[in-house]
Amino acid sequence: MSLTFADLPLRPETLEALSAHGFISPFPIQEQVLPIALADGDLIGQAKTGTGKTLAFGVPLIERVIAPLDAEWASLEAKGSPQVLVVVPTRELCVQVTKDIEELSGNRGLRILAVYGGRAFEPQIEALQNGVEIVVGTPGRLLDLYRQGQLKLKEVSRVVLDEADEMLDLGFLPDVEKIFASTPNRAQTMLFSATMPGDIIALARKFMNQPVHIRTQDNEDEGAVVSRIEQHVFRAHALDKIEMLARILQADGRGPTIVFCRTKRTCQKTSDDLVERGYRAASIHGDLGQNAREKALNDFKAGKSDVLVATDVAARGIDIDGITHVINYQCPEDEKTYVHRIGRTARAGAKGISVTFVDWDELARWKMIDMALKLGLAEPEETYSSSEHFYELLNIPAGSTGRMTKAKPVTSEKPREKKTVEKIEKTQRPVRTERTRTRTKKFSS
User: Could you tell me which CATH number the domain at 5-215 has?
Assistant: First the structure.
């Protein structure tokens, strides 16, 4: 008999919130992490993306926090000071983790705050002054608020470091060490990472107390690639990629899709090209302001757009169920990036399709990725938007073109536009005529 959340020693409010959001039985990483985390032990959770790590640390945090509506609140000395700190590498992941924890918090009056760059300090400072129990933030903004004296870390008893390997890649590890050193009353530390580089292991040894290392891996997939993903790799010409992409987006059964690019410029251009071809596409990359990035992500989640073109850095935190296709418009830098990208699909037990375009100058890089993950796809077939096997493999209907058919404009609008133009001309004509008359009188006098 499989374990359910009801079998765990959880508060009734937490169980109710889990049930309301459809969480009945824990995933493997959650099943292994929860008993240790609920017993206040330090742990390292290593699992590939899309396996439910947020819930694995979110539930224990909510259980241990004393909220304003709890009976223990009256005896709490430092009311309103943060009790829990969750450190994440990117803004998008910060927003996502905050949302996930809020959904599980129940009706206990728990206050959760997301702090990240690209936003004004004042609202975040005001929220901290009003009191919060859980703070989720990116390293840079957390340290800025701490140095300003606005973020008090003295009462923080539990710290979570999520996506630790990405934190290392982005150069945030020194900031993370400063944050750890600023939490003297830390009773529990949890670290989650898809991979465990040497620097992360050193960090764990320095700041963690005899952590339990939990590692979940699919026996059928030693390369850490999600086995449920149907993977396709094509050798594609740079000038034909947009045409191939546009036709994939017309495949049978194609749902919400993420397209990955290496550069910000290619990301924006690809998105603009798709919009011009009639697709509901949006882009998310580092050159966009935070408001624009959040709007693009929210529109994608809400279904207002069904194609999201993203760079790797901006894509952390895109945790959306139901993504059917992931397309690597540009070949990833390495095997870790490849695993992260395609892991955006086939989440929570679903299946998915990944497509990777490899240009001629990217073959060497792709072979290294293939060798590291043992995919057996080292020699991708030369493919064009008109290739028969391309249509067959991806279930693209015969006769599909690179453009969506657009609705014809309503004919009744044309006369309206004409009248508007005529009206403008009539209003302007008397003005010009009056000027002419004035000048004529002046010259004649």
Answer: 3.40.50.300
